[in-house]
Amino acid sequence: MDCIFCKIVKGEIPSKKVYEDEHVVAFHDINPIAPVHILTIPKKHISSLMAIEPEDKELIGHIHLGLQNVAKEMGVAESGFRVITNIGTHGQQTVFHIHYHLIGGRQLEWKA
Ligand code: 5GP
Ligand code: ZN
């Protein structure tokens, strides 16, 4: 399968990792939109939130705990931040391996 995030998981494409455990890897977005912009992904290929299966429930919880670690590691746990997962066309998803953008390091606004 030709998935850039699976290649990042396997180390076939380089990335600047900030957190990794058995199930999750987090790395700097190549095109950051804020001073802190980290992508957190499961090592398992899941194409989007809409492809999550009941058997993935524990993994999804694990990702949230991983996001806490990423926020602490990036120094935004106290100031606050945002977590976003884009889905499909209207969501402007461009990479079809589920990923959670963690954005912060400045005051964010809420616009869609
Ligand atoms: P989406 O638009 O699907 O929600 O987000 C995909 C994100 O992946 C974008 O913010 C884009 O900058 C990032 N991205 C795409 N290709 C690469 C890559 O090869 N390496 C890294 N680190 N980020 C990437
Ligand atoms: Zn993948």
Automatic annotation (TrEMBL):
<protein>
    <submittedName>
        <fullName>Putative HIT-like protein</fullName>
    </submittedName>
</protein>
<dbReference type="InterPro" id="IPR011146">
    <property type="entry name" value="HIT-like"/>
</dbReference>
<feature type="domain" description="HIT">
    <location>
        <begin position="4"/>
        <end position="112"/>
    </location>
</feature>
<dbReference type="InterPro" id="IPR001310">
    <property type="entry name" value="Histidine_triad_HIT"/>
</dbReference>
<dbReference type="Pfam" id="PF11969">
    <property type="entry name" value="DcpS_C"/>
</dbReference>
<dbReference type="GO" id="GO:0003824">
    <property type="term" value="F:catalytic activity"/>
</dbReference>
<feature type="short sequence motif" description="Histidine triad motif">
    <location>
        <begin position="97"/>
        <end position="101"/>
    </location>
</feature>
<dbReference type="InterPro" id="IPR036265">
    <property type="entry name" value="HIT-like_sf"/>
</dbReference>
<feature type="active site" description="Tele-AMP-histidine intermediate">
    <location>
        <position position="99"/>
    </location>
</feature>
